[in-house]
Amino acid sequence: MTTNQPIKTLFIPRIDESISASEIRVALETVRIGDIGAIQVFHNHNTTTNRIIITIKQWYSTRNAEIAQQRLANKQDIKIIYREPWFWKIYAYKPRSETQQHKQTTPTIQQTQPQQA
Fold it and tell me: Where do the domains of the chain lie, and which CATH numbers do they carry?
């Protein structure tokens, strides 16, 4: 017998770096999808964006929460409009599997053949 565990961790892959974790918290609390736990901010290298991981302590029993959970369970995104017309695309967080993570290797020197003219 399988049970449908609610998704507890959300992911925003790209968000402007000027937006703070407290602004994200306020927006999520406003749409009343759940009790928001930790919000972790990670900088996307060579860009002016961050990626965000959000922990949901408990989902609320609201229409917005039901819609969000259903979409996330079906591997769809949810859009949170935080400042009309601006929005965030939020996904269920999936940690990398061991096969997708970078494997530790021994450093080597790559040898290339000189190009002949």
Answer: 9-92 (3.30.70)
